[in-house]
Specification:
It is extended, with a radius of gyration of 34 Å. Residues about 1-15 have low confidence and may be disordered. It is about 30% helix and about 30% strand. A hairpin with a 2-residue loop joins strand 4 (about 115-120) and strand 5 (about 125-135). The protein has eight helices and twelve strands. It is an alpha+beta fold and about 325 residues long. The protein has helices at about 1-15, 25-35, 55-65, 85-95, 160-165, 165-180, 245-250, 295-310; strands at about 45-50, 70-75, 100-105, 115-120, 125-135, 155, 195-200, 205-215, 225-230, 230-240, 265-270, 275.
């Protein structure tokens, strides 16, 4: 743990040495890298290692199709070693403005290897390494009506996620990986895509995808059927590396400006108009100064002036 903290401190020190911008374009780029109160959708980079297998290439291709809306697929091989030297990987993530990655590799010691990870502030936060034991690609299933990149409903099966702390973090990671945006409400009629993750053993994870079919049941609640559509993955846990508690606490910290506190006497109607209640003391309208119209003031003044200018005409006396 101490070695990892020292390594993180060195990496953070190198990452923060940024030369001041000399042009307007450079200043705009650096401003775009700054932290935001409301973060954008998390982008994922999928990349191949120095050596890969046909299975790993197909797994990366299918995962890219699922995350196509906000993912980048690297064509060239990248000779990175995520668990040994991660500086080059962090630089690539910063260049692509991404916070999550999937790294596929293959060798004699770790065949069909795939690493899921996420970064924070230019450094590695979590990494989970799996071995692919079984795989069925999308083309092996029947054609589905679910559009690629649709928001899924995640189901986690097994008490392993609650018994072991590292599996709780794995569950949190896959929530970030498959659900990049938060939703406040769900329309059940539009629920058509389900991803199931089952922890069968402390070192085995099964990933399945289903299409939801709602059929008439004679009651208000429809009859639900699930049809498997792929991707289908059997993964075996090999290694994992999670951030220390202090680094994770810093990553999860929410700024004060982003916290929405409850404001008294303020509400919103159905149209979204902001309504407020104002409390005032009792007012005496009789004592309030009232503004007079200029037209009224001018007419009175003219009438007074004309009356003062009139000369008295002597009246003739009759004899």
């Amino acid at each position: 743990k101490q070695w990892y903290q020292r390594r993180v401190a060195i990496t953070a020190g190198i990452a923060r040495k940024v030369n001041p911008p000399k042009t307007r374009k450079g200043k705009k780029i650096l401003e775009g890298r700054d932290s935001l109160l409301v973060e954008n959708e998390k982008k994922t980079v999928l990349m191949k290692g120095a050596k890969t297998s046909g299975i790993i290439n197909e797994v990366l291709a299918d995962l890219y199709k699922i995350r196509r809306s906000n993912a980048v697929m690297m064509d060239r091989n990248n000779p990175f070693l995520p668990f040994d030297e991660s500086q080059g990987l962090c630089d690539l993530m910063k260049k692509k403005d991404a916070s999550m990655f999937v790294f596929g590799s293959h060798n004699k010691k770790r065949p069909h290897n795939i690493v899921f990870g996420r970064t924070f502030d230019g450094q590695i936060l979590d990494m989970i390494e799996f071995g692919v034991t079984s795989f069925k690609k999308l083309s092996q299933f029947k054609q589905t009506k679910v559009p690629l990149g649709a928001k899924p409903c995640l189901i986690f099966n097994g008490d392993v996620f609650e018994k072991f702390d590292n599996w709780g973090l794995i569950q949190n990671f896959f929530c970030d990986f498959f659900c990049t945006t938060k939703t406040s409400s769900i329309n059940l009629a539009g629920l058509e895509y389900v991803i199931s993750l089952s922890a069968v053993e402390p070192d085995q994870l099964l990933l399945r995808s289903y299409e939801v079919h709602m059929k008439k049941s004679g009651t208000s609640t429809p009859h639900v059927e699930l049809q498997e559509i792929g991707v289908s993955l059997d993964l075996k846990l090999r290694r994992s590396q999670f951030a220390p508690a202090d680094v994770r606490r810093h990553a999860l910290k929410v700024p004060k400006a982003a916290k929405l506190g409850k404001t008294k006497n303020i509400s919103h109607d159905m149209a979204g108009t902001k309504m407020a209640t104002v409390h005032m003391t009792k007012q005496n309208i009789a004592e309030m100064p009232q503004a007079r119209m200029k037209g009224v003031k001018g007419s009175k003044r003219k009438e007074g002036d004309e009356g003062s200018k009139k000369k008295k005409v002597p009246t003739a006396t009759l004899r």
